[in-house]
Sequence to fold (263 residues):
Amino acid sequence: MKKNWLLLLFALPPVLLGLSGCVQQAVNNGMPLQSGSDRALQSAKIHTELAAEYYYRGQLDVAIEEVNEALKAQSNYALAYNVLGLINMTLNENSKALENFERAVRLAPRNSEIRNNYGWFLCQRFAQRMDQAIEHFMAAAKDPLYATPEMSYANAGICETKRRNYTEARLLFQKALSLQTNYSPAIIGLIDMDFQRGNLAEAKSKLAQFLQNNPPTAESLLMAIKIEQAMGNQLAVDSYIFQLQKHFPESKETAMIREGAVK
Fold:
């Protein structure tokens, strides 16, 4: 997944983001100019940038302090509420996250990064609101000014996979790959579809090809662990767990292994 200044993955990435959740934060991309003095706006922007960076590092307490400073400077700064929503999501404070994402969208309805993040939150935490999540992803992906539409297409594919709409999911992953040929969340998404449908040999073959041609990611290593576990290859499982813990010790995927969430 692309990472530049203030592109956040929940995954992760998701995103945070997820999986690989894929979430994203940008400053003033598609956002209407807020009311108030230029100095207040600049202060809110700087503190929001700092909050996003601390969030990305996992320093959530400091990130919250910076968001609060941003909102002191400008109480209706949409991007600050967006970052606060991501923080709340990470802390499993779902009601607070919902409130902050909804406020961010109301303040900046044309901001595609915010809509992508809100869609990801709904997809991960509210199965009954999956249609709404897909709507937010599509609005972001179809925005001609949005820098990373492949992210929203892949996120939508992940969500369709969750509810076993495999035909729709495949089309969405393929759309993401048509925009960025080697976009790893979309590739892993297609492999995960094979895995979920019991096509273990096909999933293993595709993942081996991916790992041969690309640096490993936390998502791809976790996928490898799941496949090898399903196939009963414990030595391979142990090898991939070692790689995951070595290269991505702070990832949510490593936390899942440590907490026994993957068996």
In short: Residues 1-151 form a domain with the Serine Threonine Protein Phosphatase 5, Tetratricopeptide repeat fold (CATH 1.25.40.10). Residues 1-21 have pLDDT under 50 and may be disordered. Residues 16 and 58 are 9 Å apart (CA to CA).
